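A common beginner's mistake is to predict each chain separately and then try to dock the pieces by hand. The better habit, illustrated here, is to supply every component at once so that their relative placement is modeled jointly.
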Amino acid sequence: MTTSSSEGNRCTRISPSAVLDDRLDGKDLEWARDHLRRCEACRDRVEDFREMLLRVGRLPSASVGAAAMDQAFAVAIPDRLRAEGGSRSFEIAPPGTTTPNPPLPELPTPMRPEVSSVPDLLIELEREIFRDEPGQDHPTPLPPISEPTSPMMTEPPVEDLQAVPPAEEVEPASGPWREVHIDSHREPEPALRDQEPKPVAVAPQAEPELDTWRPPAVSATEAPPDVIPAATGSNVVFEQEPALRFDQEIAPATPPRKPDTAMRLAVGLGAAACVLLAAVLYEGGWLAKGLHNLSSTSPAAAATVHGSASASPRFTATPSPSPPPPPAPVLFTLGNGVSGNSVFRIRPGTAVAGYTRLVFDMRGGGLPTMIVTRPDDLHVAVTFKNSTVTGIPVNGIKSYQIAGIEPAVQQGADGTITIDLARPVRVTAFTLPATGGYSWRLVLDLHTT
Amino acid sequence: MDQVHVEAPVATAQAASLEREFYSDFPLVLNYVARLVDDIDGAVGITCAGFRQVADSLRHRRTGEGLRRADVFRAATELSRQALKPRRWFRRQHNTQLSLEGFPQTEARRALRRDTVQRALTALPFEARAMVLLRDFVKLSYEELGDVVDIAPRKLVYALDRSRAELGEIYDYIKF
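With all components supplied together, the output reads:
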């Protein structure tokens, strides 16, 4: 199998995977061999693929202990298959020998909760979601509310012991509510509740609103008055209201799904608001920038621009009056003094945890004089005497030790390349002669101190 | 006196083969899933669930068939994909982890550490990652690989080419 495409100048007529995985035969194989003999690009690609293949193949594997394997076997393989290998063939079922028929009782106990949870996750999730939603949509979840009241009827007696004096007949319905309320906040509320019905008779119409606002209504002092009319009302819903009014704890019990939807809506609205705000800010910034540009055409803005421009020359002028910085400590002086060289590439060499290697490739008849200096702790400068350094690609060279490499600067005959360090390092340097396909090289090792 | 040993030979043989297949394949599948999801703790549950799926499906097959490796890897891959699927914000996060007795020991964690190759694998798209791992790490045959990833063997070479090339590019990019 070969491909007939080519990427730019690079030949890609050979599929490296076909070669490495022995998917070629006959004429294809002959052709591929012949092509690989002649095409260096394809040979390199195949070699690259082979290296990557070996790297993945050599990835270490974690060993699993015997106990863990046994446990996994018990969890993963159903009892049926485990105990009686062929029992799944229900027709085989040796008559008397296959006595153990308790797979059904056994399955649910240890294995179901663990194993079934994994594959059925999404199903369960969706089931939960869809179970929630109908509850939210239908405003008639009152029957479900009545259900919890019955179990709670058993608990109120405990509270009734404490609040024996107050009402007894109507209490059973409100008993559970009051119980939660006492736990959560204050005890005096029952008394307040009894007293309050009388003063607050003015807000009967607000009751429907109260229904909706009960969960959030945290103000317990204002709530009781409203509750009392509800209690006096004859509707069942009103009977529930007072309890809701008193306790915030109860709110989660009856409308547990409402807050959920409310929260979802709130989050959704909040997200929409954020997006809108971001859009407005973005547009505003854009507009502001446009306005700023427009205003910059005015004389006043032009003056400010000039002011900033005047600052930059001043900034460049400052180094000249302060000559002390130039004497940066010289770390190494290397080379044979050859002139006319040009540095054409910087490449990171071996990536080892302890250090980063930078290789400076040079064209020319030898090594120029190279001075490695350290202006400060976070910079290393390499000066190539009588050499050209402009136009060297320096983007993307970063490592644990290197924060970046500044674009090369040509100062007269000399060129300087400054390395920004991410942290203080120890520098070692050496040179290599031109051999084989390699040119003259300066090698800089930046060791973590 | 001749002693007669009475048993169900077929059933025993099948149980034995099932057990043998499980014990031989489980570590391999577990390591594959751990590399695929880049999470050794979550890999246990996914692997067990994959085996469970395949074992449960055996009842619908002809008697005599055991656990096919390709089926197990296919189930494990699918479950891994689901596990990695981004959760909707309103969906609850379920705890899918299953802990085995003393499994993720220190050596296991060290073996599955995030070295450069693992980081490059993690950066690959899921399908490409699964393909590279199944072929180069698990060393499945092309036929098995085709069964797992649902790609015709003829197209598999090109898919592998793309995946490996992408992995190589990512590796070259992040190795420093």
